[in-house]
Amino acid sequence: MAARLQNRSTPGRRRASHSMESVLTEAVALLDEAGEPALTFRALAQRLGGGVASIYWYVANKDELLDLATDHVIGSLLSDVEALPGSDDPIDDLRTMALVLFDAIVARPWLGAYFMRNTNAQSNSLRLYERLGAQTLRLDLTARQRFHAVSAIIGVVVGSAVDLGQEPPQEVLDGKVGRDEYLGRAVQAWRELDPAGYPFVHEIVDEFDGHDDADQFRSALDLTLAGLRLQAGKAGA
Amino acid sequence: MAARLQNRSTPGRRRASHSMESVLTEAVALLDEAGEPALTFRALAQRLGGGVASIYWYVANKDELLDLATDHVIGSLLSDVEALPGSDDPIDDLRTMALVLFDAIVARPWLGAYFMRNTNAQSNSLRLYERLGAQTLRLDLTARQRFHAVSAIIGVVVGSAVDLGQEPPQEVLDGKVGRDEYLGRAVQAWRELDPAGYPFVHEIVDEFDGHDDADQFRSALDLTLAGLRLQAGKAGA
DNA sequence: CACATCATCGAACGGTGTTCTATCGTACTT
DNA sequence: AAGTACGATAGAACACCGTTCGATGATGTG
Predict the structure, then answer these.
(1) Compositional bias (Polar residues) at which positions (chains A, B) (predicted)?
(2) Residue B145 phi, psi (nearest 5)
(3) What is the interface pTM, i.e. ipTM, of the complex?
């Protein structure tokens, strides 16, 4: 069965004594250090100074471990969002919130992939969802429009995050090739393409070279929010 | 040692003869049948009637197998996009293309996760990217705006695709719980939340219940395209 | 002190991607 | 026609993964 909220932190001498908190904290630490592949039960056990099977007392399987770890960090993310000042423009507030989300994913790229998992099962995710949606209640929209608006914003965040979160291929991880050099090669390959066959790629290759992920995200977000503003204004007038 | 004479008379193990095409086709078939976890080298080898190690002659590792398989199906997807009639409104054309992409991901949910991997390495992905971007060349935008517009549209597709592509948890896969029942439970749980603490969730729970993924995607896409139209019009006038 | 329960752990199982080495079959050389 | 080089295949083994099982230390209760 699963561990309940009780926690005995009496320090054992030979045997390791864990707690839900420590398990999740170390799991997140592993994820932060080297992404999802780094989070293995064996690595986690070693880190906790205990045995592998012990972790299964706190967690049913790896899926649940990932869920709880995600919810754990979303908890603090939720605090950040709730601490936001807020303005008289709900769409501005939505923008600010989305930027906080994006920043969190930049700091923890592995978050992106697990961001939308089972909104129902993760309490903090749901509360974050509510927090975003609450802003749409201040807009003149139908219920369906509100639902779709929040979905769209989260979609933009996740869409950018997935792009951002994908780990560079072996070469870069091994340190043989620097990340900049890796991207530089791609740019170089693009430049050598047939300009007649790839007019667009040639048009934007300079933009791609040395582009800023945050800029890219902000632009995508602002397009969606501009559309939303239009939608809210249309019904209102 | 023994096989010298028996070569013809007694048919020993016939050696399998593969090809890049057959490897990729069977790999895609496995992915279609049960998603990424179903694509293992052993399952693929058995399907090809050969040994496990043989696959490594065609492919360096699983990552490359996934890349090539993805590029394989994107190839036919590209044909669909190129066969599109096209109109005098570039944004309409972008919308149509995005819908084709979305349909492809609905048909092959595993595609979503690998959709954006290494645009540079996958030739068909790059051509698809070019095809989308070409439409923005018909709009009055800066190079950077064009770059960001295409990124945004792809972001919306991927964002929806990730949401769509995540496999339901164990219960549903085991067939113990139907997918509708599973979603129904979530809806039920939402309805039982404190209305004061979760006003937005209560507002949209009816919309979520029995919602259509395609509707959700189309709404998100249209918000982005509305923003883009605004942006293009502003600079033009 | 006995006891039930919580919590921990080593060892093992089946599965995975990957590598090593040996081999077959064919096309070309001589 | 025999020999050879090489493209292509394959079995066995390795290291690692998530997961399970059974045993056992620790702890508070009667």
Answers:
(1) 1-10
(2) -65, -40
(3) 0.89
